[in-house]
Model the fold of this input.
Amino acid sequence: MQLKTSLVAFIAILASGCSSLPEQESNKQTSQVSNSQVESGDTVDKRDPLESINREVWDFNYQVLDKHVLRPVAVGYRDYMPLPARKGLVNATDNLDETAAILNNSLQGKFSDALTSLGRFTINSTLGVFGLFDIASKLGLEQKHESFEETLGVYGVDTGPYLMMPAYGPTDVRTTAGGVVDGMYLPLSDLNIWASVGRVSVKALEARIQLMDQEALLEDSFDSYTFVKEAYFQRLEYKVKDGKVAKPQESKQDLEDFEAFEEELEGLEGL
Done:
């Protein structure tokens, strides 16, 4: 069960990273160059000191665990779970994150957003039957989610080394620490093991289903490992800066190297 929980968490992170690509087409691949250094003729990413090990783990996670376990489960979930039930489960799991959003918005000085998160949690936990129905959104209170990982980033804490964990996937020190802290808030801290597994599983399965539309892009990428790593770090930056990410200067060589890649990304606009 622990393996399954970690696996679904891995694909959730992967999917969230890939979902940010349309918003940052050019930035994604060029940041790979700008965050690297050349040593002995080889390009070494300073964020990824354990790349050789991480690549082996990525191959196992994606080619074995995802291919033979998670994707088939996600397909069955998509095909046989009634859509209203799926929507209700997503709403309920999102509602559990509202208390973390209240605290992290406050820590970042976003007091208006913190009040919005408080209103969402109150309304959806009562009128929305423990969050199964997103009544708050219908009343104009849109989700303002913030995590402790984002709060640390706002305060200037670096991500630390990139790690591809077996059956878990991409992570870093800041994200791992932030996830632990967010899990200490009520009501998440009061969930038993089965409720926690159910919450993570629902989020991950829905994320994996969304990723299916982008599988060809991942398969056709020059390097799937680098593709996921860049998407992961871009997603972190995008979240910390609330989408206000500066576009780096792109050299002629960069544009030539990734011209085909960017053409593929154009097809993702609007996803």
